[in-house]
Design a protein that fits this description.
Length: 220
């Protein structure tokens, strides 16, 4: 498993220049397709109950003191059942994770993704929705919500409205539509990302995690 993974990564290594003053002249980054393959393989291990728990040693922790080069950004829900490092079978320094209820985009989230792409040279951005999402369920149910919760429902309203037109399960459709719309926004409307996507340096994908099977499906 380890050999297969290493070979896959080695086959698609890119050399990217580091900003001046950071010591070594080059840092190794994983190409977008290789990064996606690494996530798929990790998820397959997780689903098959054969997780390898990579990069969780003291040696890895020590290695990362010098700096981080996560190979993928994962924007996902704060839901406790959707832990990216676990469901993709990754470890320390592998994923740049951003989470909030409903995996929503706002300025802080977008800035965090820009930081990962621009400064950490991360080449893959995954927007990961999930089945049985409470935030989407609440947005679809409507009605009065307390405190700051209406802000989440408002952000999810366009996806819920679009989902109602599909004729399928509103919540499950809205989960997919929300993730797909967000991925499209990131790839086309956020300048730093859009340029990187156009140049083929970065890939943005939408995906959905099934909390029952553990499987991550990449959405079209
Ligand atoms: Zn959720």
């Amino acid at each position: 498993m380890q050999t297969l993974r290493s070979a896959g990564i080695a086959a698609a290594l890119l050399l990217l220049a580091l900003p001046r003053g950071l010591g070594s002249e080059v840092a190794v980054a994983v190409a977008p397709d290789a990064a996606l393959a690494r996530l798929r393989e990790g998820n397959q291990r997780f689903v098959a109950a054969s997780a390898a728990h990579p990069d969780q040693t003291v040696a890895r922790r020590t290695e990362l003191v010098a700096g981080q080069h996560p190979f993928a950004v994962v924007l996902t829900c704060a839901d406790s059942r959707v832990a990216p490092e676990i469901l993709f079978d990754q470890g320390l320094g592998d994923l740049f994770v951003i989470r909030n209820a409903g995996n929503l985009l706002d300025d802080h989230v977008i800035a965090s993704i820009e930081y990962a792409v621009e400064h950490l040279h991360t080449t893959l951005v995954v927007v990961l929705g999930h089945t049985k999402c409470g935030a989407v369920t609440a947005a679809a149910a409507g009605g009065e919500l307390p405190g700051h919760l209406p802000s989440i429902a408002e952000s999810l309203a366009p996806a819920v409205a679009a989902a109602r037109k599909t004729g399928g399960d509103v919540v499950e459709s809205a989960v997919s539509i929300n993730a797909t719309d967000e991925a499209k926004t990131l790839a086309t409307k956020v300048e730093i990302l859009a340029e990187a996507v156009k140049a083929g340096k970065v890939k943005v994908v939408a995906a959905r995690y099934d909390i029952a099977t553990g499987r991550v499906e990449i959405l079209p």
